[in-house]
Design a protein that fits this description.
- The complex is a heterodimer of chains A (497) and B (500).
- Chain A has 497 residues and is mainly alpha-helical.
- Chain A contains 16 helices and 6 strands.
- In chain A, a hairpin with a 2-residue loop joins strand 5 and strand 6.
- In chain A, helix 10 packs antiparallel against helix 15.
- Chain B is built from 18 helices and 19 strands.
- In chain B, strand 11 and strand 12 form a beta hairpin.
- Chain B is elongated.
- The mean pLDDT of chain B is 90.
- Classes of the chains: A mainly alpha (497), B alpha+beta (500).
- At the A-B interface, helix 10, helix 13, helix 14 and helix 15 of A face helix 1, helix 2 and helix 3 of B.
Chain lengths: 497, 500
């Protein structure tokens, strides 16, 4: 490590040391990885052209180049405004985003007669729109990075964000069906031909609030009242917030008819609660509450129907998709058959028929991709996601402030959980829910919200990677404790007894 | 907070591990099942990329794939509609094919191993590979005659079947089941319309989708007497031997008395065997069967092909259309001893005896062919996409020898006597030797009888065709009409072969 001015830090004081790497090293690594990602995208789109148009057109590289340009722009922003940020996040997310755009473009081509595909413009269709959304989202992420110099600033607006989050979650639930329902899930705000999914943004707002709230309350919530089976259980009166969020997520399940979002919010909350308090009991309580709620919804859906009918039907399809292969189970069955047809190696980019699966550009993009890139390709994609999530968690581990730890941990876990929920859904591991696949699915809301999530992780990882300078919050051994930097509401580490 | 963060990382890894495991399950373990699933439209699209081969008879294409503008590039059409429906079957977009379309599916689709070289060649030549062609043994004229005559039968039967075979080879010359159906709507690319058409056919009370010639069994009535006669001849009797007869016969134990169809039939106490068959003497054959027992009757029926559960009619070295097993049924008392009354009934093709029309034709064919029964088949030749490469030509195979040539000769004379001066005169053809046996089978209390005819035609001692015709619930006059239709089919076969 290039020692900055000031005494050397012994590992014992921090436990976690920033990587021994200079900032320019990191940025060059990022640029190299980004170039690699873009090469993969270019090869991927060229293969699609060969398979679908029978030739590689001269302008095939334009979408890839547009992507490369905007990612390079973000790279420059990071290089100058977050130089110590994790170098893996951007290239990996860029790879996923690029595959998404290119695959959506491939789906557009499938809708055109083979003879006319040569004429198909490069910026047209869902693929073109997704490309535009990508440019917008990445720019937004860059703006966030530029505007937000320290992630701890977010904690100042925690209550505003929390309220905004709840409002965003509630809007689709209270809106009339014609303005909020798509495919049986009331998750949208639809105005004219335009629709946004407020839940995607609510995720970020709520998480910021959770992180702030839990950092403040963690001492209280860690207090154990009684010990049962070797696990410390919290006091009854501390259960309030958990029950509140549980109720909120159940309301989402009932009124927005979406298990995925409900699971996501609740999982997000329980995970941050656990990270904040280090109490396994919260995990157990959370899991019991969730599965109890889901089971109850299933039973109620089977007996009285009503608002639970949608969930019941999805659970039934999950239990046996082939029971009703042309109606209720059609989408899942077609998705599974697509994955199966792809097999180990897939039909090759552009070589399959993913458009048979309904909603393949959206919820089912993973099975569409799986048909063409096979088990090996999907495994690689999962590993890319896993890498992003683990890098995010690593930022949480390395960053020094509790709020940052909790926020990074929560963001990274939420991303991973969302991938699990949707990929688990399309592969039949868990009941299918209407979640988007981060960075792959068509749709501006999801893309934008997830890029903002990445911007936050980049910001936190930059803070984590910054070398310790004199006057930092961690003092060298023997030195007198300096006055901690005053930050509004910023909590300090609490040593548990 | 670092410890729980690390544990969260492990939890995420476990979740992703579950995804990975499930993906392996779907994409590796279940891959084959999903790839070939009937619900998998991808297979169809890929299948319809290639021009499926023709199914042809005598140079005429009966199943043709025509180019379309849709996503599925070829539409399967059947220009002759209902005429060949039960032979060809149909190739639906959703679900599995039937008939020849099913059994030769791989060859027609061009995906069979035999066509591997063709696929490689077209890959290098840059052409679209095509499917192979299947040529059938059917005689166009015989099939058309059988279909027309069955449909327009003079006794008003709505259901029935006819089968004609070449006794020397086993090649199927005609195979008709009525009512028939038009396979074209079933192969429509509009899968909803196809499903609706299928539902309608399935709901039809007359069950047009059933192939009555192969997969349905009927009580054979007096046609079964040929088998009893064969057993009698093997017992040392000759066609001139006298057998006990009489106007009525009640089996030793109990049961309703067996009478003849008309009081003028064999009222005398004894008739010759040939006379008994010619007049279709019920009492004589019932007594004969009781005299040598159920085991022997069953054994003889088995020798002719009864109880055969594995017979198929298609390609001799491959798959075929399944044939239902014909049965002699239970001829026992509850305590296991022989039920003489049931045996007497079974001897005249009642009780629990059931026979497919194909089995009827096989019996006649064995008699005509000197006691040798050839394995029936429909596929004459497999012709490559280029129409010059021959991938298969049928090499006729013996199926079984139910009777000696001596017994066959006697039986033949007896059956010829039936057509020349007995119950089967409607089947006569000038200048040819025609033999056969009529049958009128009780279908059940208060239901109209089925009319049967099984027979054969010879020229100079050489068999030309063996035919079975059944008119379901035809009522009185059914069997003479069946004999007439059989005669027409045999004429058509002769005409198709240029009189030889």
């Amino acid at each position: 490590m290039t020692a900055p001015a000031g005494p050397a830090v012994t590992p014992s004081t921090t436990g976690e040391l920033p990587r021994a790497r200079t900032k320019s090293n990191r940025r060059n690594a990022e640029l190299g990885l980004l170039a690699l990602s873009m090469t993969v995208i270019a090869i991927y789109s060229a293969t699609i052209e060969i398979n679908m148009v029978d030739t590689v057109r001269l302008d095939f590289w334009i979408p890839t180049a547009s992507l490369a340009a905007v990612f390079f722009g973000l790279h420059l922003v990071i290089r100058f405004r977050a130089p110590y940020a994790d170098p893996v996040l951007l290239p990996m997310v860029a790879l996923l985003n690029g595959i998404g755009v290119t695959f959506l473009r491939r789906l557009d081509l499938a809708r055109v007669e083979p003879a006319e595909r040569v004429e198909y413009p490069v910026f047209a269709g869902t693929g073109g729109r997704q490309l535009a959304w990508t440019l917008l989202s990445v720019m937004l992420a860059a703006v966030l990075l530029l505007a937000l110099k320290d992630h701890r600033v977010i904690s100042r607006y925690a209550y505003t964000l929390g309220l905004t989050g709840i409002v965003l979650v509630m809007i689709p639930a209270v809106l009339p069906r014609s303005y909020s329902e798509i495919n049986g899930a009331k998750l949208w705000i639809r105005i004219g031909g335009f629709s946004i999914q407020p839940g995607e943004f609510a995720k970020l707002a709520l998480l910021s609030f959770f992180a702030y709230y839990l950092v403040r309350k963690r001492e209280v919530l860690s207090l154990a009242s009684r010990r049962f089976l070797g696990i410390d259980f919290p006091r009854g009166r501390d259960l309030g917030p958990v029950l509140l969020v549980w109720a909120l997520s159940l309301l989402v399940l009932i009124f927005e008819k979406d298990l995925g979002t409900s699971l996501l919010y609740f999982g997000m909350f329980v995970a941050t609660l656990y990270i904040a308090t280090e109490r396994v009991s919260w995990l157990i309580i959370g899991l019991l509450l969730f599965f109890g709620g889901a089971l109850l919804a299933y039973v109620l859906g089977g007996t009285i129907g009503g608002p639970f009918a949608n969930f019941y039907q999805r659970a039934e399809v999950w239990l046996d998709p082939f029971a009703d292969p042309y109606q209720d189970g059609f989408q899942l069955v077609q998705g599974l058959l697509g994955l199966g047809t792809g097999g180990l190696f897939g039909a090759g980019p552009g070589g399959g028929q993913p458009h048979i699966v309904p909603e393949v550009h959206n919820d089912f993009i993973f099975s569409g991709l799986g048909e063409e890139i096979g088990l090996f390709g999907l495994t690689a994609l999962l590993l890319v996601y896993l890498l992003v999530v683990e890098r995010g968690l690593r930022a949480g581990i390395t960053v020094r402030d509790s709020f940052g730890k909790l926020l990074a941990g929560g963001l990274a876990f939420t991303l991973g959980l969302q991938v699990f929920v949707i990929v688990g859904g399309v592969t039949g591991l868990i009941p299918l829910t209407g979640q988007t696949t981060p960075f792959l699915s068509a749709g501006g809301s999801s893309l934008m919200a997830n890029w903002l999530l990445i911007a936050l992780l980049l910001r936190i990882s930059d803070a984590a990677g910054q070398p310790l300078v004199a006057g930092s919050t961690i003092r060298p051994p023997g030195a007198p404790a300096p006055q901690p930097a005053k930050l509004h509401g910023a909590p300090t580490e609490v040593i548990r007894p | 907070m670092n410890a729980p963060l690390r544990r969260t990382g492990i939890v995420v890894m476990i979740l992703f591990g579950l995804l990975f495991a499930k993906l392996n399950w779907v994409q590796a373990y279940k891959a084959e099942e999903y790839r070939t699933s009937d619900y998998n439209g991808r297979v169809q699209i890929a299948e319809y990329e290639r021009k499926r081969g023709n199914i042809e008879v005598g140079g005429q294409a009966l199943a043709v794939s025509k180019a379309t503008d849709g996503e599925l590039k070829y539409l399967r059409t059947y220009p002759k509609k209902g005429l060949y429906a039960h032979i060809l079957g149909y190739k639906p977009v959703n679900g599995t094919a039937t008939g020849i379309e099913k059994i030769e599916d791989e060859y027609l689709a061009g995906s069979s191993d035999q066509l591997f070289a063709d696929r490689v060649r077209s890959l290098f030549a840059g052409e679209e590979p095509a499917g192979g062609n299947v040529l059938l043994t059917i005689s166009r004229r015989a099939q058309e005659t059988a279909y027309r005559e069955l449909s327009d039968n003079q006794v008003g039967a709505t259901k029935g079947a006819a089968v004609a075979l070449d006794p020397r080879t086993g090649a199927v010359q005609a195979l008709v089941s009525i009512p028939s159906f038009d396979p074209n709507p079933l192969s429509s690319h509009d899968t909803k319309a196809a499903a609706a058409a299928y539902k309608k056919l399935e709901a039809d009370r007359n069950e047009p989708l059933k192939n009555r010639a192969l997969s349905e069994t009927f009580p054979p009535g007096s046609t079964f007497k040929v088998i009893v006669a064969a057993a009698a001849l093997e017992h040392g009797l000759s066609k001139g031997s006298l057998i006990p007869a009489g106007p009525s016969y009640t089996a030793p134990t109990a049961g309703t008395p067996i009478r003849n169809a008309h009081p003028t039939i064999c009222p005398e106490p004894q008739v010759t065997l040939i006379e008994a068959l010619t007049e279709s003497c019920n009492t004589g054959f019932a007594r004969l069967a009781v005299s040598f027992g159920a085991a022997e009757l069953k054994e003889k029926a088995r020798a002719f092909g009864f109880e055969d559960e594995g017979l198929t009619v298609g390609r001799l070295n491959g798959d075929g259309l399944p044939v239902a097993a014909s049965r002699t049924g239970d001829i026992q008392n509850p305590d296991g001893s022989e039920d003489k009354a049931a045996l007497a009934q079974s001897a005249i093709g009642q009780n629990n005896v059931r026979m497919t029309p194909l089995q009827g034709a096989l019996i006649a064919a064995a008699v005509a062919n000197g006691g040798v029964q050839m394995r029936p088949y429909l596929v004459q030749q497999l012709l490559g996409p280029d129409r010059t490469t021959n991938h298969y030509t049928a090499a006729p195979r013996e199926l079984r020898r139910p009777i000696s040539s001596q017994v066959a000769r006697d039986l033949r004379d007896m059956m010829v006597s039936v057509v020349e001066r007995g119950t089967g005169t409607n089947a006569r053809i000038n200048g040819y030797t025609v033999g056969g046996k009529t049958g009128t089978a009780q279908a059940g209390e208060g239901e109209a009888e089925h009319g049967w005819f099984i027979g054969f035609v010879l020229k100079d001692g050489q068999p030309i065709s063996a035919v079975a015709v059944v008119l379901e619930s035809a009522g009185p006059g059914g069997s003479p009409e069946a004999a007439r239709i059989a005669g027409q089919i045999m004429r058509a076969v002769i005409a198709d072969r240029g009189g030889r």
